[in-house]
Amino acid sequence: MTELAFAKSFLTTLDSRPSNLSPTHFEDPKNYPPRSAFILPKSPGPPFTKRQKTAPPPGSAPTLTLSLKSSRNPPLVVTLKDQASTLSILDIKESVSTQASIPVKALRILYNKKPVVDSKTLKDVLGEEVIGKGGKVEFGLMVIGGAATVMAKRDEEKEPIDDVGIGKGEEILKTDEFWGDLRGFLVQRLKDEKEGERLARAFKKAWEKS
After folding, report:
1. In this predicted model, what pLDDT tens digit does every residue of 87-130 receive, in sequence order?
2. Residue 64, Cβ neighbours under 10 Å: how many?
3. Which of 70, 86, 129, 180 is most buried as measured by Cβ atoms within 10 A of its Cβ?
4. Which residues of 147-165 are buried (b: 16+ CB within 10 A; e: fewer)?
5. C-alpha–C-alpha distance, residues 119 and 112, integer Å
């Protein structure tokens, strides 16, 4: 008799016998016979050690060191340390302007040799992978007008500036610095360079017609 035939006959014999337990059988667990606890044998090898993970404090994020280089005239190297990923490109321009004495409107930030708009943040430009690693990130820097712009800015800083106090708002509105600051504020708050420029132009036209 082959194994298959034996298995069939064995199962047929089991089916012919009555079942001792009904389908609705229920037994009280309290009536189970007492059993001793089963303890696993000890491993003969060395015990496993858990890997300790050093997680950063909650709420903290890795900071970046930004290196901005300009290979053209004028050659510049500006380093900004401990910069957050939420920093906007416009904020970076303002920091570079403070260190290098260059007007913000004459600066262009490049990443992978491509210009980056002011409304974007470091997180938008670099991505999660680069932000998570932290460390040093290099950007390109371009100065519109070259060395002449730098010299003009330094000459302006040497000239005495009259203090504009209360009651001179009309004079402030006539300056390009005011409308440049307004444009930068709108771009940073709206996160949209085109919309910020459009609103700045609209405000200036409305003021000129008034």
Report:
1. 898 999 998 888 888 888 888 888 888 888 888 888 888 888 88
2. 22
3. 70
4. eebbeebeeeeeeeeeeee
5. 18
Interatomic CA distance for residues 153 and 101, integer angstroms: 6
What's the CA gap between 203 and 179, in Å, rounded?
A: 9
For 53, the token pair is 């993970």
Angstrom distances, CA of residue 16 to CA of 2, 11, 13, 21, 22: 22, 9, 5, 15, 15
pLDDT in tens, 119-178: 888 888 888 888 877 788 889 888 877 655 555 555 555 555 455 444 566 778 788 888
Token pair 């930030």 is found at: 109
The pTM of this model reads 0.44
3-state secondary structure of 135: strand
